[in-house]
Design brief:
Layout: H1 7-14, H2 23-31, H3 35-58, H4 60-71, E1 81-90, H5 93-96, E2 105-111, E3 115-120, E4 124-130, E5 136-141, E6 146-148, E7 153-156, E8 163-169, H6 177-183, E9 187-194
Parallel strand pairs: 3-9
Antiparallel strand pairs: 1-2, 1-4, 4-7, 5-6, 5-8, 8-9
Length: about 210
């Protein structure tokens, strides 16, 4: 009986580096009940890797922000992780038009001092919420601006990306993303990149 290929093999198949992949791997992918979902996840991983690399090269400030975040890891102490819920849905105006689909959610559990990457379709609202009672303040930064994000929500318009959403302790006195990151002892960020070809980490209702 054919088995679903492992993650490394799937990633090689998606990247076209499958010269050494045995035919059994393709048979397993095509025959497995979970084959379509596994292939879609492999495509998403590949797209996230490629788009992340392009973003780092084109926007040096992303690397600076990630470097600062990494420097905060040891300062986080015993509280090494924070659970954030990323809620993706279409703009609220759709509800006024009678669209009542419940938006799907993705829970992102990120260690303090890390920047997680999420692929997001255009016209999607992403809202960050703490799940464990943390009191957090939110900020945003794009290639053209930065500032506070009181609601913790951002609507990704086409061409916005990359967008970094930053969460820090609520008691931190800061007015901008840069001030918050410079003064934080604990911080976590989510990097929003625009999904393409129908692939996304966060999906809005269809």
């Amino acid at each position: 009986m054919s088995r679903l290929p492992d993650l490394l093999t799937l990633d090689a198949m998606v990247a076209g580096l499958d010269d050494d992949v045995e035919g059994e791997a393709w048979d397993g992918l095509l025959c497995a009940r979970e084959g379509a979902a596994a292939w879609a996840q492999a495509l998403e991983r590949r797209q996230r890797l490629e788009q992340s690399a392009l973003a780092w090269v084109a926007h040096p400030w992303l690397a600076d922000a990630r470097r600062t975040l990494r420097g905060l890891r040891s300062a986080a102490g015993a509280a090494t992780s924070v659970a954030l819920e990323a809620l993706a849905g279409r703009d609220p105006v759709f509800a006024q038009l009678g669209v009542t689909h419940e938006p799907p959610t993705q829970r992102v559990t990120a260690a303090w001092g890390r920047m997680e990457v999420a692929l997001v379709p255009p016209d999607t609202v992403v809202s960050l919420r703490p799940l464990q009672g943390e009191r957090l303040r939110y900020f945003y930064k794009t290639a053209t601006g930065e500032g506070p994000l009181p609601t913790g929500s951002w609507k990704l318009e086409r061409g916005d990306a990359p967008v970094v959403l930053l969460a820090v302790d609520a008691a931190l006195p800061a007015r901008t993303f840069s001030e918050a990151l410079a003064g934080a002892t604990r911080a976590v960020a989510v990097l929003l990149l625009e999904a393409s070809s129908g692939l996304s980490t966060l999906r809005h209702p269809t």
